[in-house]
């Protein structure tokens, strides 16, 4: 059997990580029918004990999703919604959401998986297991949204030599390059070992800096195996997804640009770091 993508990759970190935000999500079979404020305060108490230095605010939250199905009679739209709770901590730059079918962790300040995200992910998964008690899990996902900005990037060609050449397309040259200000592409990847990824990338116009053009690298990795919910297993799968994301990030940049971002090798502790 082939090893899952990225598990034998290089372990590294960046002195100047470009991640705008990072998101972990786990979807599970329903544990509680409703996640009300009482459950929210139980989750708040759990997080306060886990992170004594953080203050957690609790509020209601609603998750909504719309799906469009094409039928012989025409398109048909179905809407889904769930009511849950949101926990936020300004000290930890973190937001956690808990719903009957899913939980998510988002951080807005990211440096390394082992320090910025894993402790929060581990706490959220353990809280789901102990307090919400779901039966199974359907999907584990990990997403890193990177936004490269440089005042010198006044033309799309600035990113030539920094981004992997095969990704650049019209950014590197062609009849439209001179007029490009915004252009994204999407790759759907099979990473092996039951994992997959969606890589969104391309020029990203910024209203805050209209004279320059940034570059988006949005890496969304996931594992859609269904199994009985087990916190340790979910955390392990998240670590594997982190390694996959780290390798995709590395493959998307030239080595010269990685060095310019302060890339440094780190000792492997069995989990690896994204950036």
What does this structure look like?
It is built from five helices and twelve strands. The protein is an alpha+beta fold. The strands form two sheets. Strands 2, 3, 4, 5, 6, 7, 8, 9, 10 and 11 form a ten-stranded antiparallel β-sheet that branches. It has a two-stranded antiparallel ribbon with strand order 1-12. α1 packs across α2 and α2 (113-132) runs antiparallel to α4. It is globular, with a radius of gyration of 20 Å. The model has no long low-confidence stretch (mean pLDDT 87).
Report a brief summary of the structure.
This protein is of the alpha+beta class and 275 residues long.
Give, in order, the helices and strands. EEHEEEEHEHEEEEHHE
Instruction: Compute the CA-based radius of gyration.
Output: 20 Å
Let me know the largest β-sheet. Answer: 10 strands, antiparallel
Distance between the termini: 28 Å
